[in-house]
Amino acid sequence: MALAVLLTLIAPRGEAPQERFAPGGDARERAALDAIEKIEPATIAAQVRLCEVPAPPFGERARAAVVRGMLESAGLKNVRLDREGNVVGERPGRSPQPHVVLAAHLDTVFPVGTDVTVTRRGAVLRGPGIGDNCRGLAVLIAVARALNAAGVETDGSVTFAATVGEEGLSNLRGARVLVTETLKGRIDYFVALDGSGSSITNVAVGSRRYRVAFRGPGGHSYNNFGRANPANALGRAIARISDIQVRSAPRTTFNVGRIGGGTAVNAIPEEAWMEVDLRSTDQAALEQLDRSVQQAFRQAAEAENARWKQNRAVTVTFERLGERPGGRTDERSRVVQAALAASKTVKLPARLVENSTDANVPMQLGIPAIAIGGGGTGANTHSLAETFDSTDSVRGTARALLLTIALSRR
User: Are residues 316 and 342 in the same domain?
Assistant: First the structure.
């Protein structure tokens, strides 16, 4: 595929963002764009290699070591691990500002012992995590390689980061430390490379997650029939939650994702538990849903005890397992407009979406932040049958490069 040599230029900082095209642009920047196309096979090879290094939740160390070596080979300076285990590498510009952070998460949703072998049939790669987020990591490395190969000198500096703890109950721990400690006060723009495709996330979906446990005396299902039952209370709670009315705009959702408890079919359980996920793009709506769900927990225990005329035989406790902040980056902002313009340049059909990514953290703090897909086409994300179609995937890599260059301009 012949990529356009038009470079997207963004208005200087402080001016209203606008789209402008130059018939050629800086020679080194054109060379970097050419390099992106030439190294795309190597980018896909890196994607496969990284995917075959396990990175389960809280177990990203092995993959982090490989990424660290790749970023060092790409010519970055001061490549290191921060205190949370994020891989961080620097590419100094002519001056420290504007400071752009390009990040991709290391971890997957798959537990220890998952077979992470990648198979290939034509342009389609198959393996758990091949798109989310081995594609993002591969694009991260490719951008660093292309900038270095072409000798591009940016006005501002660029930090490349491979973060831990983006998936599941990891609570965005890597992004939190990166933004609030490692690079505190230094970030002008934050771009997360997450998964495949061409979307641009400028709205962060906030979430709260709970583990809820109902407990009681238990007993024999026949001899002790009539005792308040934690499993019954759990069922009452789920029924109450399912009847909660939520707003469609801003979109607000709830889900009971896991349940468990008990010892035998003929035993009243001593404990029954569930895990609940609450989400919204609006903080006030999330707070309201949270209050309603907590009320459902308590009322379910009260109703079960009242049914059997018992006083606090069943009790309920709940623990917040994680919280992701919500946020929004205005679509008129420089970072969003730059991403849209870069998408147009490489002919990617970009659209603005809502999602939950590492960009949630900087968005909440008011840092201009987005997440973008790494190109190609993904399917069956978060499943063992996950696939990545690499047809025209170079467009995603090229967009990330152009966006990084554009944001690093004064």
Answer: no
Identify the helix (H) or strand (E) that includes residue 153: none
Reported as a single tens digit per residue, the pLDDT across 17-29 is 333 323 345 789 8
Summarize the confidence of residues 180-198 as an average pLDDT.
98
Q: Are 124 and 387 in contact (CB under 8 A)?
A: yes
- Residues 381, 136: contact at Cβ < 8 Å? no
Q: What is the CATH number of the domain that holds 255?
A: 3.30.70.360
Looking at the fold, whether 197 and 297 belong to one and the same domain comes out as no
> Can you list the alpha helix ranges (DSSP code H) found in 308-367?
334-345, 360-364
pLDDT tens column, 374-384: 999 999 999 99
Could you give the dihedral angle defined by the CA atoms of residues 259, 260, 262 and 268, in that order, rounded to the nearest 10 degrees? 0
What domain range is 334 assigned to?
7-203+327-407
153 pLDDT more than 50: yes
User: Do residues 129 and 28 both lie within one domain?
Assistant: yes
